[in-house]
């Protein structure tokens, strides 16, 4: 799933741009949208605050508020959690109004933003959709454990598989009670090199007898405390091959893939590991 944010002042035409992008992208795949709302609607069945997204072709829309949960049920839902829900089933996610999100963004009206600005313009009317879609195609997909498991289940050899083993690595806040809490980790890679090495490891492990699919993903950039960092998924005939291969997969990824990690605590920051 490709993720794109749209941020800008209230009069910059954010929703109009999301509508236009939804109409275009829904011709190529399933689109889900997420919209920041200033309040939870009293009547959620009509969804008036998100209806424009759906009318433009979005298959599903989440409306999120800062203090009152999320549209339709009222339970708490963060932007990462909303994207995780969309990722296994949707090709695109358009996110309106989250300037602090570290996702690719279309930036209107000079709005401050945390994610990479793919396109900047004064208003929605000044944005060329072809430029946005071309830039979006060059970004990496939003990958979750569920998306990798779904891919493994679609393997042409899945009919011979009786086991799926997975590994998820996450940001540990501290090793002991005395440690300063880790706020986030930041990962950097040699562009292209790390990805090529990960694919080579997948191919080599996938050639084992009884192993039918090996998939992995390592996030880059800033990953906050408690968030997921890395996934390994193995589809195999039996649990023995699955468990052994998933363990070898994460060990080889850590030992062989050139990934550089900086740890930031409440008091200091330092590079932890370089392969």
Percentage beta strand = 25-35%
- CA-based shape: globular
| Helix content percent band | 25-40%
Oligomer: single chain
First-to-last CA distance? 29 Å
What strand order characterises the main sheet?
A: 3-2-4-1-5-6
Please give the count of helices. Answer: 7
Describe this structure as you would to a colleague.
The chain is 27% helix and 30% strand. The protein folds into two domains: 2-137, 3-Layer(aba) Sandwich (Rossmann fold), CATH 3.40.50; 145-274, Molybdopterin biosynthesis MoaE subunit (Aldehyde Oxidoreductase, domain 3), CATH 3.90.1170.40. The longest helix has 18 residues, at 239-256. The two termini are 29 Å apart. It contains seven helices and 13 strands. The strands form three sheets. A six-stranded parallel β-sheet has the order 3-2-4-1-5-6, sandwiched between helices. The chain has a four-stranded antiparallel β-sheet with strand order 10-8-12-13, with no helix packed on it. It has helices at residues 14-25, 51-55, 79-86, 129-137, 145-153, 193-206, 239-256, and strands spanning 2-7, 31-37, 60-65, 92-96, 105-108, 117-121, 163-170, 182-189, 211-218, 221-224, 228-236, 259-265, 269-274. The chain is of the alpha/beta class and 275 residues long.
């Amino acid at each position: 799933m490709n993720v794109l944010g749209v941020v800008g002042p209230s009069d910059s035409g954010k929703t109009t741009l999301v509508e236009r992008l939804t109409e275009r992208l829904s011709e190529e795949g399933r689109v889900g949208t997420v919209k920041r709302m200033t309040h939870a609607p009293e009547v959620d069945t009509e969804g008036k605050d998100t209806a424009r997204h759906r009318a433009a072709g979005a298959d599903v829309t989440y409306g999120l508020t800062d203090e009152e949960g999320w549209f339709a049920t009222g339970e708490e839902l963060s932007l990462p959690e909303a994207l995780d829900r969309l990722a296994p089933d949707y090709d695109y996610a358009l996110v309106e109004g989250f300037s602090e999100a570290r996702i690719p963004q279309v930036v209107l009206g000079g709005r401050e933003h945390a994610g990479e600005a793919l396109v900047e313009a004064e208003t929605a009317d000044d944005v060329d959709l072809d430029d946005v879609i071309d830039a979006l195609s060059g970004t990496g997909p939003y990958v979750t454990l569920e998306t990798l498991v779904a891919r493994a289940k679609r393997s042409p050899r899945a009919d011979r598989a009786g086991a799926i083993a997975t590994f998820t690595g996450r940001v540990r806040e501290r090793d002991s009670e005395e440690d300063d809490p880790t706020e986030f980790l930041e990962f950097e890679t040699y562009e292209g090199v790390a990805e090529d090495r990960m694919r080579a490891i997948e191919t080599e492990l996938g050639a084992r007898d009884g192993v039918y699919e090996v998939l992995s993903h390592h996030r880059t950039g800033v990953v906050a405390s408690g968030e997921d960092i890395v996934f390994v998924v193995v589809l195999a005939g039996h649990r023995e091959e699955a468990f052994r291969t998933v363990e070898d997969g994460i060990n080889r990824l850590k030992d062989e893939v050139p990934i550089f990690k900086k740890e930031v605590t409440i008091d200091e920051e330092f590079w932890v590991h370089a392969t």
